[in-house]
Every structure is written in structure tokens, then in C-alpha cells.
Specification:
The complex is a heterodimer of chains A (94) and B (198). Chain A contains three helices and no strands. With 94 residues, chain A is an all-alpha fold. Chain B is mainly α and 198 residues long. Chain B has one domain: Four Helix Bundle (Hemerythrin (Met), subunit A) (Up-down Bundle). Classes of the chains: A mainly alpha (94), B mainly alpha (198). Chain B: It is a multi-pass membrane protein.
Chain lengths: 94, 198
């Protein structure tokens, strides 16, 4: 039974629950928008990392470098699309 | 077909390795799909017109239930892959079934949530904000719905054929897809719901 619940994955699950609770603090506690967004950005990206490395085994095969290259490239394009568009269409007019 | 026994079953043939790599590249494209949805949502988040704002319509309880269900299902699909690597067929099937049940529960809460939005006057065509909100959530929900059927068919194949390079490969790729949906939900939870209710 014990081998069906490896410590690494159980800890990963507990850790992601903890991160969710930390993220929830922005709802239950009174804080500035900037501080809240900083907390959310940090917890969301750590959670995504936990999923990728612990649960998705991103680094286990010999295609590791190809997987990470394609992944970081798409994350880079995603961030440029989101923040570039916000800069051009919202923040630039504030 | 050359089978490499030093690797887990899902990586044991050249074709299997290529399938997994190819699926990672597909997930890269999915990241960009959700990036464009998030971009449009963020730009229009304050364009509520005469309709409700996020703070008016978001409810913390269903959102928390959805988050908990999806996080747990991501954990159980990880356990299913672990059980598969231990060649424990019944445990794999059980974890996969729990994952799909949690996914179905997530979807029911999301359907309730959509009905709630409709009743409080946040339909698809009310404002730029509601339109993009429902499109983004709906795209994620459609992925979960697709995943439920996909997972169900894989469960039936494991039940019938047991573990071989083909079924193991499919199960592993499905687990990648399911974890990815959880990652996207974390971003929806943080940057649509919590940001909207802050």
C-alpha cells in the first residue's frame, strides 16, 4: 500500500494545497493590489513548477532538453503576448 | 518493434518516446492558446459596460470547491502513473477512476457556476468582460470534458488489454494532459477569480 503513495507526490500535493491557502490570503486579508498580485504571481508560478517537475516528470527522459526548450519558449511567448498587449492597450493609457 | 526494458513501459519503444515528446510540444501550443485568452480577458476585465463586474458575480465557495477537486484529481492521476510503473493494474484503474470522478464533480460545479452567472445577468453577450470570462472558463471546461471521455476510453483499454507499450504510453500522455489542465486552472483561479475578488 505504501508504495502506491510515494512521499514525493504526497508532499507535492500537500505543498500545492499550502500554496493555494497562501494565495487565498489575498481574498481574506486586506492588502494593496500590488502586494496581492505579487503574492498571486509567486504562488501560481511555484505551483506550476511543482506540477511540471513532480507530477509531469518533465526532466526524466533523454528528451529533457528538448522538452524544456519548447516549454520555456512557449512560456516566453505567452508572457510577451500577455504583458506586451497589456502595455500597448491598457497600461500605456493610464 | 524494439522494446527497451531499461525504461518504464511508456518510454519502451522509439515511437513511444516520440509520442511523449510530441505531446509536450502540443502542450506548448496549448500554453499559447490560453495565453491569448488570458491576454484578451485582462484587457477587457474592466470593460463591464452596463453589466456586472467580477466582484459582483464571483463566489468564493464554488471556486474553492473546483480548485480543491482539480488539485486532488491531478494528485490521483500522478498516483495512477506511479501505480502503472509498479505494474499494479487494479490500483492504476482505481486511481484513474477516482481522477475521472473528481473531474466530473469539477465539471458539475462549473456548470452550476455558469447557470449562476446566467441568472445574475452575466451572459455571453452582456459585456466584453462577461464574453471573455465565459470564453476562457469555457475553453478550460471543454478541455476537461474532452479529457473525461479520453480518460474513460483509456481506462477501458487498460481493463481489457492490461499494460503494454501502447496502453502505458496512452496513460502517461493522458496524465500529462490532465496535469496541464490543473496548471491552467491555477492561473484561472489566481488571475481571474482571486484578482477579481481582491
Amino acid at each position: 500500500m505504501k508504495e502506491l503513495f510515494p512521499a514525493k507526490q504526497v508532499n507535492g500535493f500537500v505543498f500545492s494545497l499550502l500554496l493555494t491557502v497562501v494565495a487565498l490570503s489575498v481574498y481574506f486579508m486586506d492588502m494593496s493590489f500590488e502586494l496581492g498580485m505579487t503574492i498571486l504571481l509567486i504562488t501560481a508560478f511555484i505551483q506550476a513548477g511543482v506540477q511540471l517537475i513532480i507530477f509531469m516528470h518533465a526532466g526524466e527522459s533523454k528528451d529533457k532538453s528538448t522538452i524544456y526548450t519548447s516549454l520555456f519558449y512557449s512560456i516566453f511567448i505567452a508572457l510577451v503576448t500577455i504583458f506586451g498587449s497589456l502595455l500597448a492597450m491598457v497600461w500605456g493609457y493610464m | 518493434m524494439k522494446i527497451d526494458n531499461t525504461q518504464p513501459l511508456e518510454y519502451s519503444t522509439e515511437q513511444n518516446e516520440m509520442n511523449i515528446l510530441g505531446f509536450w510540444i502540443f502542450l506548448g501550443a496549448e500554453i499559447m492558446l490560453f495565453a491569448t485568452l488570458f491576454t484578451t480577458y485582462f484587457i477587457y476585465a474592466d470593460r463591464t459596460g452596463s453589466g456586472p463586474t467580477g466582484a459582483d458575480i464571483f463566489e468564493i465557495t464554488p471556486v474553492l470547491i473546483e480548485t480543491f477537486l482539480l488539485l486532488t484529481s491531478s494528485f490521483t492521476i500522478g498516483l495512477a502513473v506511479n501505480a502503472m510503473r509498479l505494474q499494479r493494474k487494479n490500483a492504476t484503474i482505481a486511481f484513474l477512476a477516482v481522477t475521472l470522478l473528481l473531474g466530473a464533480a469539477f465539471l458539475s460545479v462549473e456548470i452550476y457556476e455558469f447557470m449562476h452567472y446566467y441568472h445574475v445577468g452575466a451572459g455571453l453577450q452582456v459585456s466584453a468582460f462577461t464574453g471573455m470570462l465565459l470564453t476562457t472558463l469555457g475553453t478550460h471546461g471543454a478541455h476537461v470534458t474532452f479529457g473525461l471521455f479520453w480518460g474513460l476510453f483509456i481506462l477501458m483499454q487498460i481493463k481489457k488489454d492490461g499494460f503494454n507499450p501502447r496502453t502505458a504510453n496512452k496513460t502517461f500522455i493522458f496524465s500529462l494532459y490532465w496535469h496541464f489542465l490543473d496548471v491552467m486552472w491555477i492561473f484561472i483561479f489566481s488571475f481571474i477569480y482571486l484578482k477579481g475578488m481582491m
